[in-house]
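Morning F.,

Quick status update on the modeling queue. The single chain you submitted on Monday has been processed. Sequence for confirmation:
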Amino acid sequence: MADTVKYLLDETRIPKSWYNIVADLPSQPAPALHPATRQPLGPADLEPLFPMELILQEVATEREIEIPEPVREIYRAWRPSPLVRARRLEAALGTPAKLYYKYEGVSAAGSHKLNTAIAQAFYNKQAGVKRLTTETGAGQWGSSLAYAGGMFGLEVKVFMVRASYNQKPYRRAMMETWGATCIPSPSPLTEAGRAILAHDPDCRGSLGMAISEAVELAVQDKDTKYALGSVLNHVLLHQTVIGQEALLQLEMAGDYPDILIGCTGGGSNFAGLVFPFLGEQLRGGRKVRAIGCEPAACPTLTRGRFAYDFGDTGHLTPLVKMHTLGSTFVPPGFHAGGLRYHGMAPLVSLVQELGLMESRAFTQTGCFDAGVQFARTEGIVPAPEATHAIRCAIDEALRCREEGVSRTILFNLSGHGHFDMQAYMDYFAGKLEDRDYDDAALQSALAELPEVTAA
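Structure tokens below.
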């Protein structure tokens, strides 16, 4: 149909394998290093944190990794997710561009995060793990792991960045409804948290701090493992069901993207959409423009340094080579809490270094402008994180109008904003501020990057 809006796949077409871009990249990612010895990690070094199957996925080089049938069975509750042609938004913009979005807000947790939460819970259960610890910013990841833990009978403890914990009580309630425990971070429950609170009793927290607390508890108990919602290779791997489905759906539409767009905090939803298309390109297929969109107040890709750094503030995690603002950098508070992370996924960072993607930073109010316009045309109220991708997509569509050129634009609508309505209330009341980061603090954090001679 010429005027089709939704492109839907049958459940039988849920991907049977995850796609690993490492197999197609012209250069391999730098190895993760032990935080104490600064030498490349071996599988045994990661066993206190992750089950062996996830460790093997973290270092995998094969192009396809089979999705276990129990994971695909649970995926059926919301996958394949719809691909939608944003025809009303196109009309409102008066653009010749064709705008599509892959909508991940149809999952039970309301975002793409459930794609990896289910996989991680499955592998941990298989390994005999009894409980998981994790961190969460806006709460989408914490909600997803809470749901996944319930599916497999695992206890889940979530350290939620304090700024978001206070802003989003309904996300906390959602986690608790699914059986998880939600704790504001920094907390007095860990050495890392106590040290931070001793220095700053009113600390608003950051993802790096929450990671430190979750990791600390995990390594103290053999029956507990740590789960991460973004950044690591195996997490990005699990998200590639998004792009693989989108390839099939665009084939149904008789179309192919010229531009791919995703918001970037740790990089997982961007990679999930974009990597399968970049894989096609790297194997001789059509070239695409890929754009990562981040907050101007936490500009990891646009201002960060490509260097080895810790993934957490307490320096408990391995060192990985990534775009980073420095592990001690604390971004200002803003509503897109899922994007308030000092580092970027090593694979996304490498993709940018290889010139396979570009990145842009956007202000908070500009993103909410776009989010409201999207809601008033397409009907979906987007999460604050997802508004960054919408802002970029609208800008590209307007550029097409100015140039009189029709391009196909695909973006990932990574989640809905039903638990973020206070942010929209603040926006309509004129209370949202475009907060800038402290450049002196950024330079100080970058000056403290660890010295690494290996790799």
